[in-house]
Amino acid sequence: QVQLVESGGGLVQPGGSLRLSCAASGSIVTIYAMNWYRQAPGKQRALVAGIARDGRTTYVDSLKGRFTISRDNAKNTVYLEMNSLSPEDTAVYYCNMDVAELRAGVGGYWGQGTQVTVSS
Question: Could you give the CA distance from residue 89 to residue 75 in angstroms, rounded to a whole number?
């Protein structure tokens, strides 16, 4: 089994910054794609950014320039640096990883979610 634990959410004022982290643990052989999603109140969960094992990144166009995804393969951890935050960024943020497990093939896993609230 694999567990993803997120951290770094909280309350921030408009224009502020936050850095989210998500660390994976368990019977991990390797981790392929790592992604961040978010779900705002009353809306569906949506992709924010993704990063492949080789470091190639993808972003939702509307977030390019403000959000930066990165990863540390040695630590099985993905990060999301968020800058110039606005109330529209308020959401629960989830990490998602495609994990190759020992004796179990590749599976998709989700973190428990971390709340980000942007408000003055």
Answer: 27
Query: What is residue 78's three-state secondary structure?
Result: strand
**Cβ contacts of residue 89 below 8 Å, gap of 6+?**
38, 82, 116, 118
Question: What does the alpha-carbon distance between residue 93 and residue 9 come to, in Å, rounded to a whole number?
Answer: 8
What sign has the CA pseudo-torsion 105, 110, 111, 112? negative
How many other CB atoms sit within 10 Å of the CB of residue 21?
18
| 64-97 residue pLDDT tens | 899 999 999 999 999 999 999 999 999 999 999 9
DSSP state of 66: T
Nearest CA-CA partner of 95 in 53, 33, 16, 40: 33
Q: To which residue do tokens 């809306």 refer?
A: 43
